[in-house]
């Protein structure tokens, strides 16, 4: 059965993802920080087939929740309600954009690991944070195309990784699983795999080289 995908954040990234997922999946919902009604025009014009919901409803309804808010905002969400869900962390901590956030400044590991600590019981997958929203539709290609761009993902739960990999494939990219959530450090801003247009083979070559360093 088609998974229910709930996107939290209806800005540049959330809207682009909702459009793309709606092309392959029946059940896609999105929210912003306001009432569902505030998305009426956006749904009509940009996101036909996508539903707007209230945050508690969306968390309960979704099988896969995608966090696409500015990172500073995630702690305002009802995180404890996400226990048991697959949660895709598509956010970045990037101080030039977010401003300095003390706990992320002093945390040396993957920002997604810090976020995972705030959502006990959820299966966190870090991905979709490395591609500019404007490139999602532009760079999507059918499976098997030799130029198909790769998107990396990292997570501790094998089943969650596999399901999220299917989502990435469905929207036109090759999913490359790079292992545990701690490997998400390889996908953060200012790293070699951030915001680069590479195929899966090229990505594996980069990973191979990085592991030898
Ligand atoms: N832009 C990109 O190309 C891109 C690519 C990869 C990753 N990312 C990451 O994706 C995240 C979002 O970036 P963006 O560029 O899409 O930001 P954006 O255009 O500023 O949109 C942010 C969205 O988050 C919503 N939001 C804020 N607080 C919320 C809350 N408590 N509950 C529900 N929704 C809330 C906002 O709602 P309101 O409209 O009601 O304020 C808005 O719809 C960032 O962490 C960024 O690093 C962005």
Bound molecules: NADP nicotinamide-adenine-dinucleotide phosphate
* CATH architecture tag: 3-Layer(aba) Sandwich
Helix content: 25-40%
Sequence of secondary-structure elements: EHEHEHEEHHHEHEHEH
Distance from first to last alpha carbon: 43 Å
The figure for the number of domains is: 1
Q: Quickly name the level 1 CATH class.
A: Alpha Beta
Taking the sheet with the most strands, its summary is: 8 strands, mixed
Short overview:
By secondary structure, the chain is α/β, with parallel strands linked by helices. The chain has helices at residues 12-22, 40-45, 55-61, 95-98, 102-106, 111-118, 133-139, 158-170, 200-212, and strands at 5-8, 28-31, 51-52, 64-67, 86-89, 123-127, 150-155, 174-177.
Main attributes?
213 residues, Rossmann fold, 8-stranded mixed beta sheet, 15% strand
Q: Would you write up a description of this structure?
A:
With 213 residues, the chain is an alpha/beta fold. It has one domain: Rossmann fold (3-Layer(aba) Sandwich). Strands 3-2-1-4-5-6-7-8 form an eight-stranded mixed beta sheet, with helices on both faces. Strand 7, helix 8 and strand 8 form a beta-alpha-beta unit. Helix 1 runs parallel beside helix 7. The termini are far apart. Bound molecules: NADP nicotinamide-adenine-dinucleotide phosphate (NAP). NADP nicotinamide-adenine-dinucleotide phosphate binds next to helix 1.
SSE layout:
Elements: E1 5-8, H1 12-22, E2 28-31, H2 40-45, E3 51-52, H3 55-61, E4 64-67, E5 86-89, H4 95-98, H5 102-106, H6 111-118, E6 123-127, H7 133-139, E7 150-155, H8 158-170, E8 174-177, H9 200-212
Parallel strand pairs: 1-2, 1-4, 2-3, 4-5, 5-6, 7-8
Antiparallel strand pairs: 6-7
Helix pairs in contact: 1-7
This protein binds NADP nicotinamide-adenine-dinucleotide phosphate (NAP).
